[in-house]
């Protein structure tokens, strides 16, 4: 019998990046390119609005398909933080997937796996997803817990469902106190 080791990998891997770019040409046409060579792009066109919408949708499709990897290194840090040269920061925190797009320019959409520290200082970004942190304890099938005579509720509280078994008599409950009518003070009292 073989046993498969299912612990998540702890070795760090390079952060991924996808870039979708709208490039204009001298004849007033434009093309859309993607850094993933397997992606199919529309033909060169004069309809810039349609190409811009396609590029934004294509970047969104990459974002929906990507699962952020908890063991990824910060892509920005791997590039010596060239995206934010004026602001120095140490790469730290969980890995996040961000979309960087400057709407004023509107020609480049960049998806990156970067650390939270770099994400705070990059301009024009939206955090799309966060990496799932691996659990510190490996998941194992629960061992048979010994059955206690009286199941309890965490925190020391009890409930009717967690009471003694039916064959043990329960103590009689005391009736609730009812508020007594207040009596008015007589003239001679309390002076």
3D structure, described in words:
Helix content is 15%, strand content 17%. By secondary structure, it is an alpha+beta fold. A five-stranded antiparallel β-sheet has the order 2-1-4-3-5. Strand 3 (95-100) and strand 4 (108-115) form a beta hairpin.
Shape estimate: elongated
Task: Count the E strands.
Answer: 5
Gyration radius, rounded: 32 Å
Enumerate the spans where pLDDT stays under 50 for 5 or more consecutive residues.
1-7, 141-163
Distance from N terminus to C terminus (CA atoms, Å) equals 93 Å
Biggest sheet architecture: 5 strands, antiparallel
* Pattern of helices and strands: EEHHEEHE
Strand content: 15-25%
What's the helix count? 3
The overall average pLDDT, rounded, is 76
Strand line-up in the sheet with most strands: 2-1-4-3-5
Name a few traits of the molecule.
single chain; about 190 residues; alpha+beta; 3 helices; about 15% strand; elongated; disordered N terminus
């Amino acid at each position: 019998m073989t046993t498969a080791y299912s612990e998540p990998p702890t070795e760090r891997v390079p952060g991924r990046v996808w870039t979708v770019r709208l490039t204009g040409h001298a004849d007033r046409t434009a093309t859309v390119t993607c850094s993933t060579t397997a992606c199919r792009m529309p033909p060169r066109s004069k309809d810039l609005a349609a190409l811009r919408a396609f590029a934004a949708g294509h970047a969104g499709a990459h974002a929906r398909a990507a699962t952020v990897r908890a063991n990824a290194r910060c892509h920005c840090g791997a590039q010596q933080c060239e995206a934010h040269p004026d602001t120095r920061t140490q790469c730290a925190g969980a890995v996040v997937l961000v979309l960087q797009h400057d709407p004023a320019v509107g020609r480049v959409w960049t998806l990156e796996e970067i650390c939270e520290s770099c994400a705070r200082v990059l301009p024009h970004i939206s955090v799309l997803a966060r990496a799932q942190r691996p659990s510190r304890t490996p998941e194992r099938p629960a061992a048979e817990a010994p059955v206690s005579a009286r199941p309890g509720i965490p925190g020391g509280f009890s409930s009717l469902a967690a009471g003694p078994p039916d064959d043990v008599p329960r103590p009689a409950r005391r009736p609730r106190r009812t508020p007594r009518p207040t009596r008015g003070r007589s003239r001679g009292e309390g002076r």
